[in-house]
User: What shape does this take?
Amino acid sequence: MKKPSYILMFLLILSATFSFADMKRYLVKSGEVQYKISGSGSMMGMPTKLQGESFLYFKDYGSIELSREKTSEDIMGQKELEEDITKFENGIVYSVDLEDKVIYKQTILLDEDDEIFQNKDEDSLKSLGGKKVGSEKIAGYKCDVWELSGTKICIYKAVPLKIESTAMGISHTQLATSAKFDISIDDEKFTLPNYPIKSMSDIREQRQKEMKKQMENMSPEEQKMMKDMMENMGGMFGNPGNSEN
Assistant: This one.
């Protein structure tokens, strides 16, 4: 299973502060955003460059959402192409593996009694430790810049228009080049390939194998960062033993 996009990781984290009862994850009814992806740095001593683009589509205030991402990573002259498709629908995440022609399904389970369910906008980000540090105008919209877990995010009505982060020695930027909101979006843009769907338990088993392989080549500091990230995100997902998820 391919690594998740930076924008997907942020959207999942931010989703944890919204009640799935009303599903208003965004403050606009629908949207279509195109992003330019760029990055560079040194991964384990190897010069690395990253470029690509992604698209985000959503309707019903984010209860249904699909993202498509294509990237090209150049590591010491060796290029690796990746394409990811991820769909979020009413608390369920579908991640498409185009190489293996399979779709992985995860159900996000949240405690509706938690206080953060009552938070929206700035309160939601503050509850996660975020700090507002300024504002920018991106793709024609003024958005607030927040710092959260070492990442800078520029947000317009809960929609990220710019994400800047550094991970494993690579500085990564995802910048909106165009954005349209409160528009009609064709249902075909939310359609997934006709692949078989695997459950959460299948995902957990495969991720454990991939994480073990990746961490063998990481420094102790990078291993700790990866473990902390997985622990922080682990509570957002359901019990892998549930065969229905």
Notes: The chain has a mean pLDDT of 79. The CA atoms of residues 91 and 133 lie 30 Å apart. The helical segments are 6-15, 121-127, 200-215, 220-234. DSSP finds four helices and twelve strands in the chain.
